[in-house]
Amino acid sequence: MTHAIASLGDIAERYDAVLSDVWGVIHDGKAAFPEPCAALARFRTERGPVLLLSNAPRPGDEVIKLLDQLGVPRDAYDGILTSGDAARTEMARRGASAFHHIGRDIDRTVWAGMPVREVMLESAEFILCTGLHDDERETPDDYVDTLKTAREMGLMMICANPDLQVHRGTKLIWCAGALAAAYEKLGGDVVYLGKPHPPIYDEALRRMSEMKGIALEPSRILAIGDGLRTDILGANRTGIDALFITSGIHGEMFEADPDASTVMAALSDQELFASAFQPRLKW
What we know:
Blueprint: E1 3-4, E2 17-20, H1 34-46, E3 50-54, H2 60-70, E4 79-82, H3 83-94, E5 98-102, E6 117-118, E7 126-129, H4 144-153, E8 156-159, E9 165-168, E10 171-174, H5 176-185, E11 189-192, H6 198-212, E12 221-225, H7 228-238, E13 241-245, H8 260-269, E14 276-278
Parallel strand pairs: 1-14, 2-3, 2-12, 3-4, 5-6, 5-7, 7-8, 8-11, 12-13, 13-14
Antiparallel strand pairs: 9-10
């Protein structure tokens, strides 16, 4: 049964490590949330490592620079693993070379230093999708013609951010996952990298075990997140307990202080389970 908790401290002793979402849990794309950052810092002090797991389509080192700018303190986490990291691994594994990029200029760091070439769509061997070119103004409908052409060419798409939407401040913006879903509807082949897909959790478990100095069991890890189809689904698939943050991407579904029956109904509708929930992470 999913239950509300007043403090992360109420359940912290059950876990040796935390796997925490980033956007929607510790910041909103504009500024850090002080209480969640403090809660993670305290868990690190009293219990064990905190690994941030993000669907950001950029390498972890680049995301850390962004977290610094947003005011997320370094003592809130031990490391970060991103879908951008996973994208680099996948491109290297495939020995991929010529690709067409769909996404913002800032995301070009995802292939920095790799022996690959960005080309026009007609010359591409595959598509790397990190998001929309202008996610403040565009929607997936703006990409219908591009996706249809890619489908006719039989191109595979690597989706480096499975999120559909995220909040930037109070505004919802579209993410790469929305374009990937549209491409699949056209019959296109998509490789998703990041949450909720198992490979990134395998790597996360390996890194946290390394940080802790012991082989961690999934049952001793707590996943914290606000995304039902990413954070909670990924945790359920991996056998990790989930703490659902209700004020994030699905905030419009819940009141400021929702009751357990409302949260359980929302989870049940998608055949998901969370061990506990909080409106916003705090100790």
